[in-house]
């Protein structure tokens, strides 16, 4: 996009540095828009779809975005509650319930792990409601990154991080090769931390599991390795390590071997100054993408404080900072969906929510199993599939010497009517396509992979 006209107006010089830099790239929405018009099989946008009867008892045969049955009952919410502004940090009742939800998601209650539970209850901030997970990511990044500061994240990542960090905040991404021998590249992460520690007084890292675009979730063993690495780096460098934990796809884990809860919890238990910030929301977790309700929660370290009063004051001060961001960006969050979230939890209960969502999770797991199986039947040295065991996507790497991802996606769309998202960042060794299998019916998966295979053969 060029801004020829704006540049001729007085507006342009009035823009901030950020205002000059920001633009909307030809990303997911570009490909999704094209796929809508040109594709027969659409695997572009990360929104789960299914036949209603497959995820709702008594549902019909319409192909719809997956939703929780109970949501339908909520169009008669009290007008009084819905039309008023909520407070800047969000409805207190909704915030408190989400805190309970975070505690429940740790499984410490079920396992009766009392001391872990009490640290979690006492030392996390009450979640502040943000404008979706995206706004929470922005706020957390803005809170810690000045222009030119570095944040560490893998080379395979959600492209919107680059918009927020690079284009908006003017900060820098120190990326590392995500995988080595189909496991997380711990050594690459260590080197990145050591590099940044040389030039910065803090280390900021963003982790996202299940990952977009790969679907990667660490195994339990890899999870422990990440924790050990962060602890030892913190001790070596004696600088705070801030870990932004993007938990957008938290519940969607399909393999027993994978870490079955957010890495936030283990980070929170560390006594060292490895400080986690949990970013989650109703958008994927409760399958309400347009609800735009996210939550930002920080894990406090007990050793920062001498007594209970200091802890409470620190929570108030942190809350004040977070609410300052809300006021400046979204003013306050969407009332309707905060009320809906609150009433859903109170009236239906957490177990019921998990139970009804399991139908969707099972649908996605079936597709995950099937698409990985089908991909396993392709014998082509020019491709490799990244490790994946959760989320909405998987990623096929293409040999950049033979196939450029954007060219391939274009060919796939034009000739075979299949829409996918290409990611081509050769400077970071990324060249491949993201398939959003969350939006493809199980029965269409063999056809999808067949067409991908045909397209690959056209390049060989
Ligand atoms: C990794 C990741 N984080 C965050 C988000 C944004 O979530 P939200 O819709 O809640 O802003 C997405 C959405 O695509 C995502 O893939």
In summary, what is this structure?
By secondary structure, the chain is of the alpha/beta class. It is 46% helix and 16% strand. Helix 11 runs parallel beside helix 12 (220-237) and helix 18 (405-416) crosses helix 19 (445-458).
Overall description:
- The protein is of the alpha/beta class.
- The chain folds into two domains: 30-67 and 353-458, Aspartate Aminotransferase, domain 1 (Alpha-Beta Complex); 88-348, Aspartate Aminotransferase, domain 2 (3-Layer(aba) Sandwich).
- It is built from 19 helices and 17 strands.
- It has helices at 4-8, 10-14, 17-21, 28-38, 52-55, 79-83, 92-105, 114-123, 132-144, 160-168, 186-199, 220-237, 264-269, 282-285, 308-329, 335-348, 350-376, 405-416, 445-458, and strands at residues 41-42, 49-51, 63-65, 128-131, 150-154, 172-176, 179-180, 183-184, 203-208, 241-246, 274-281, 293-298, 383-385, 394-398, 418-419, 421-425, 430-435.
- The strands form six sheets. It has a five-stranded mixed β-sheet with strand order 4-12-11-10-9. Strands 13-14-17-16 form a four-stranded antiparallel β-sheet.
- Helix 11 (186-199) runs parallel beside helix 12.
- The two termini are 33 Å apart.
- The model has no long low-confidence stretch (mean pLDDT 92).
- The structure holds pyridoxal-5'-phosphate (PLP).
């Amino acid at each position: 996009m060029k801004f020829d006209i704006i540049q001729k107006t007085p507006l342009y010089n009035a823009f901030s540095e950020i205002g000059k830099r920001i633009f909307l790239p030809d990303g997911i929405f570009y490909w999704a828009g094209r796929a809508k018009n040109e594709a027969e099989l659409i695997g572009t946008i990360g929104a789960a779809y299914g036949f209603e009867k497959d995820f709702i008892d008594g549902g019909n045969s319409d192909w719809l975005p997956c939703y929780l049955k109970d949501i339908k009952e909520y169009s008669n919410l009290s007008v009084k509650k819905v039309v008023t502004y909520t407070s800047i940090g969000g409805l207190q009742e909704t915030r408190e319930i989400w805190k309970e939800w975070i505690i429940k998601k740790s499984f410490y209650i079920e396992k009766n792990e009392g001391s872990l539970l009490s640290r979690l209850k006492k030392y996390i901030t009450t979640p502040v409601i943000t404008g979706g997970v995206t706004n929470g990511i922005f706020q957390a990044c803005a809170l810690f990154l000045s222009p030119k500061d570095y944040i560490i994240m893998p080379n395979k990542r959600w492209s919107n991080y680059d918009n927020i960090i690079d284009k908006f905040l003017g900060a820098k991404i120190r990326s590392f090769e995500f995988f080595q021998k189909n496991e997380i590249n711990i050594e690459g992460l260590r080197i990145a931390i050591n590099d940044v520690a040389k030039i910065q007084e803090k280390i900021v890292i963003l982790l996202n599991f299940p990952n977009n675009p790969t679907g990667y979730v660490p195994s339990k063993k890899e999870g422990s390795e990440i924790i050990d690495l962060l602890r030892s780096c913190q001790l070596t460098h004696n600088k705070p390590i801030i870990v932004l934990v993007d938990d957008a796809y938290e519940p969607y884990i399909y393999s027993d071997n994978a870490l079955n809860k957010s890495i936030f919890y283990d980070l929170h238990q560390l006594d060292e100054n490895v400080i986690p910030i949990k970013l989650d929301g109703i958008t994927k977790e409760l399958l309400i993408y347009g609800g735009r309700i996210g939550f930002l929660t920080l894990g406090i370290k007990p050793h920062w404080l001498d007594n209970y009063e200091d802890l409470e004051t620190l929570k108030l001060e942190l809350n004040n900072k977070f609410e300052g961001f809300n006021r400046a960006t979204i003013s306050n969050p969407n009332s309707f969906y905060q009320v809906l979230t609150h009433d859903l939890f109170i009236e239906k209960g957490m177990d019921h929510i998990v139970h009804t969502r399991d139908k969707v999770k099972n649908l996605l797991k079936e597709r995950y199993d099937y698409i990985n199986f089908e991909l396993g039947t392709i014998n082509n040295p020019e491709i490799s599939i990244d490790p994946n065991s959760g989320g909405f996507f998987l990623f096929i790497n293409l040999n950049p010497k033979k196939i450029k991802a954007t060219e391939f996606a274009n060919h796939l769309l034009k000739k075979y009517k299949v829409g996918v998202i290409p990611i081509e960042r050769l400077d970071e060794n990324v060249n491949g396509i993201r398939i959003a299998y969350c939006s493809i019916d199980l029965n269409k998966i063999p056809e999808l992979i067949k067409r991908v295979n045909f397209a690959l053969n056209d390049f060989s």
